[in-house]
Amino acid sequence: MEDEFAALYLEHQLCFPLYAVSRFTTKIYAPYLEELGVTYPQYLVLLVLWQYGEQSVKDIGQRLYLESNTLTPLLKRLTQKGLVKRERAQADERTVLVSLTEQGQGLREKASLIPQRILGSFQSGAISEGELLAFQKTLHKLLGVLEEKVVGEV
Amino acid sequence: MEDEFAALYLEHQLCFPLYAVSRFTTKIYAPYLEELGVTYPQYLVLLVLWQYGEQSVKDIGQRLYLESNTLTPLLKRLTQKGLVKRERAQADERTVLVSLTEQGQGLREKASLIPQRILGSFQSGAISEGELLAFQKTLHKLLGVLEEKVVGEV
DNA sequence: GTTAAATATATCGCACACGATTTAATCGTA
DNA sequence: TACGATTAAATCGTGTGCGATATATTTAAC
After folding, report:
1. What is the pLDDT of residue B1?
2. For residue B6, what pLDDT is reported?
3. How many other β-carbons are positioned within 10 Å of the β-carbon of residue A11?
4. In terms of pLDDT, which residue wins out, A121 or A140?
C-alpha cells in the first residue's frame, strides 16, 4: 500500500512539530513573563540588552533575526512600560540607540530565576538530559544552516 | 568568574533557537507556498484536510493546537480562495464542518512535491541524516510533553 | 561641492496567535 | 420538561512577524 501522499502526513512533517513546540514554549513562559510584565518577544529584547548593553535597533535585530518593522513598535511598548530608553545617536542620526532604564536593569534579577524553572517543563521521564542536550546541539546547528539560507551571508 | 546571569545568555537558551528556527522554516516554505497561493498556517489546515477529509473546526484545532479564534478567520480566507467549503452540521448546528473543494483537493498533487524540496534546505554537511532523524524524534517527544503541560490532558 | 547610492528607522497592510468574552445550540438533571 | 451547565464557533482587542514602501541621514562618486 504505497501512498503517494505519505510525505504530506502531519506526523511525517518536521516543520509542524517545530511550529507547535515553539508556540507551546511561548505559552510555558507566559506565567513567568506576566510577573515581569512583558511578552515573550519583549523578553528576548531584554535578554540581548542585559547581555550586551546599549545597542542600536539594528544590533538587536541581527541578534534576534528581527527587523525594524517588528522592533520599532515593540521597543515603543517597552519604552511605554519604562523598561527601555530610545535615543538617536549623536554621531549618526539615522541610528537609534536602545538602552535599559534602571527599572529595566532591575528586572534582570527576577528574570534570572526563570530559565531553571522553564527547564523543568522540558524535562520528563521520556527525555533524558543527554537527549535534550543533543537536541539543543542540533538545534543550534540547524539555526546556523537556516540562517545562512534565509538571512543570506552578505 | 562565575556569572549569576549566565542562564540568561541568548546562546544558553533553548527557547530562542526554537523560536528562530521555527520562523526561518516558515520563510523557507514561503516560495513554495506562494505557488499554491496559501500561507503557512493555511497550508497546515490543508494538510489535515487532505489527510483526514471533512471535519469540524474543533477537529482541525485539536490536530494543529489552534482554536476557533485563529481558525475561523483563516478558514474564511481559504473559503474566499475557493479551496474549502464550510457548512453547519445537520446533526448539531453548533458544529461547522470544513471540507475541500475540488480545487482544494487538486492542490494536493502540487503540494506532494514540497516536503522533499524542503528537506534539502535542512540537510547540510554539518548535520548528518541520522542526527536529523534523532532530532525529529526528540522533537516529537517534546511535543508530547509540552502538549500535556499546555493543553492539559482531560 | 553636488548628487546618486546606501543605510537605519519608521510606517503600512495583512495574517496570524491568543486571552477573554459572546452567541447559539445541545445536554443533563431535577 | 424546564432550565442551568456545557459545548462549538464567532467576535474582539492586543501584540507580533513580515513584505513592501517611505523618510531621513550619511557616504561615495564625480
Report:
1. 56
2. 86
3. 8
4. A140
Chain A positions touching B48 (Cβ under 8 A) are 10
Quick check: B154 pLDDT over 50?
Answer: no
Which of B3-17, B25-39, B61-75 shows the lowest mean pLDDT across its residues?
Answer: B3-17
Instruction: Kindly state the helix (H) or strand (E) to which residue B97 belongs, with its residue range.
Output: strand B96-100
Residues of chain B with C-beta less than 8 angstroms from the C-beta of A108: 5, 8
Q: In angstroms, what CA-CA distances link A27 with A32, A39, A113?
A: 10, 10, 17
With CA of B67 and C1' of each nucleotide, the nearest comes out as C18
Q: Which of B8, B25, B112 sits opposite A115 (nearest CB)?
A: B8
Q: How far apart are CA B130 and CA B136, in angstroms?
A: 10
Overall average pLDDT of the A18-46 stretch: 97
Q: Say what the alpha-carbon torsion angle B99, B105, B107, B108 is, to the nearest 10 degrees.
A: 100
Return the pLDDT at B107.
Answer: 97
